[in-house]
Amino acid sequence: MAPKKKEYSFDLRETVIKHFLNGDYEHDIGTKVIIPRNSVHYIIAKYKNTKCIGNIIARGQKSKTSVHADRVTQRKIKVDRRKSASTVKVEIESELGIIISEQTVRRRLHESGFMGRVARKKPYVDKLNRGKRIEVYILYTPWATTVGSTTCASGACSLTETLLDFEAGGSLPVGYGNFTWTGATILNGATYNPMSGYNVVTCSGSYVIYTFGTITMHKIPTGTTFSLNSFLATAAWFDNLNLTISGRLSSTVIYSTNIILQVFSITVVNLNWSGIDTMTLTTSGGTKNVNVTRGGKHVAIDNMCVTY
């Protein structure tokens, strides 16, 4: 007898069962629906045993791993996402004493939402060429109107504030902005090394102030106070440079904060410190940016907004 090529449709089997329930004989049912009597017999026998016309959905193949083994597999991948299926297989077999395949490990991880990924291959760019690429980008990118535009606009002073833009030329004048300055040096950031934070932070004019230690600005005349509202800052050479700022009144610290600066990213330092007569700013920490040619814990500042 040749093997059955396909099953009869649900509608046909339902018709057979209806005739059977009406009391028709198997031979007569076969004649009415035009199928062999043996097929009619099998359909009726299955209905008697299962009380179902269609096929019963099977539960599928029994899982080769227990719930505990699945949890152990997931835990190993959560600890180390780079671990391969072959490594997990060996560890599972050693710890739990069961034999599983690499494909079973992958299947269990896929069911839990862990998918393998292969990193895209990128062309190798050595340190020298990486620096040259950034230098060309900086050279042909108008920082004041692109990278720095939003930040420079965010750091602009309001009509009620006084802008200290440090456009004083080669040196900081005595009493500039009605302050006594200690440790601050003026630099032409627009023409200085483009591979530095000096060039990045230059937003108004050409000049910025910098220090690699401490800047102190004290309000004059003595006994008067001011509000330090905001300023723009970048690290000149070191990424993750720590900038410690404190505001004092009569030598008593009433404000203090720490800011982390990067070389090629302007930070808007919003303080809004009122009623102080002295501001102290100190740099520390940081690591040299791989794309700069010099080093040092220097900070560059521009667009300082104060209120008297």
TrEMBL record:
It holds the Pfam family HTH_Tnp_Tc3_2. Residues 74-135 form the Transposase Tc1-like domain. It comes from the Eukaryota. GO terms for molecular function: DNA binding. This is Transposase Tc1-like domain-containing protein. InterPro entries: Homeodomain-like_sf (IPR009057), Transposase_Tc1-like (IPR002492), WH-like_DNA-bd_sf (IPR036388). One of its GO terms (biological process) is DNA integration.
